[in-house]
Design brief:
Largest sheet: 5 strands, parallel
Number of domains: 1
Distance between the termini: 76 Å
Strand order of the largest sheet: 4-3-5-8-9
Structural class: alpha/beta
CATH class: Alpha Beta
Number of strands: 11
CATH architecture: 3-Layer(aba) Sandwich
Oligomer: single chain
Organism: Rugamonas rubra
CATH topology: Rossmann fold
GO molecular function, one term: hydrolase activity, acting on ester bonds
Helix content: 40-55%
Protein name: SGNH hydrolase-like domain-containing protein, acetyltransferase AlgX
Amino acid sequence: MRVIFGFVVGLLLTALSLEAAFQLLPVVSGLRLQSTSPAIPFNRYLPQLRYTYSFGWAMANARRGATNLQGFNNSPDFADQARALVIGDSFIESLMLDYPQTVQGRLAELSGAAVYAASASGNGLADSLEIARYYAPRLHPRNIVLFVEENDISGLLDQPGRGHSGFKLDDGSIRILHEPYHESDSKQLMLRSALFRYAYYNLKLRDWVSTTKRAAAGAPKSDDGASKAAVLDYYFAQLHILGKNNDIRFIFLVDGDRNAVYAGKRQGPAWKGTGLPAFVALARAQGFDVVDMQPEFQRHWAEFHERMDYMPMDGHWNSVAHELAARLLAQQLQ
């Protein structure tokens, strides 16, 4: 009994010591999300939320920031008649960079006009469509830049996570299904602990939980090429309607296969019929402007041998990739 009591006391003292230590370190603070609804069916954080970001067990790329009035990171507060609105996922959200280092910040500097970003981690094509639908008649941007990466294509038919939207096929018809998000009281309480946040965010316990849930839900029909082609037709058609009704030009910003670039290999499709190269071809065939980063990444690597991300630990773009993308987009906006 004494042994068990001593073990419990020792464990408690160790946990308290770690908690005190992590309170002084740049552990991820955890960005609290606003609740979603049918009226606002997309993820955004609490407005003007101050946060701390770091990556991995070593808490690399530590920085502090704050969201804007709309609840998005790395964007000024929205105002009407924007030159461009950039919509995407964590690549555009860029918690590890400051606004001037991001594609939207560099684009604003290069174009001399207002450029905003409405992006959140985990967003896919259905999320980008919902965000565009919401802000097009409210913000009246002249251009909307839609970031697309490999997960957007490979996970096109996946069940959406909480706070996200996905495409649903029913007897040949396609609609968007939203999975609401509401923050629990228990999560608010747990986020007060730096030790919990370190395990959950820095040590990727959150990713392990998400992977476990997806595995329990069953494998998505990610190999269904015909369904994906139908969804992409629907997606492009909705963008055409939105652009025509609001006088908006859509530009796709498409990620490249940086692993292939570093290895000196050519990028190939991720699934039969439509990987990123095929998506670029489809978007152009539909009449959309596309900034394909694959050739630019290949050119830059061949000339400077300079990495464009934080791999092998973190595949997000670094400031080099954002700079390259901004320069190509600036040419499009001219």
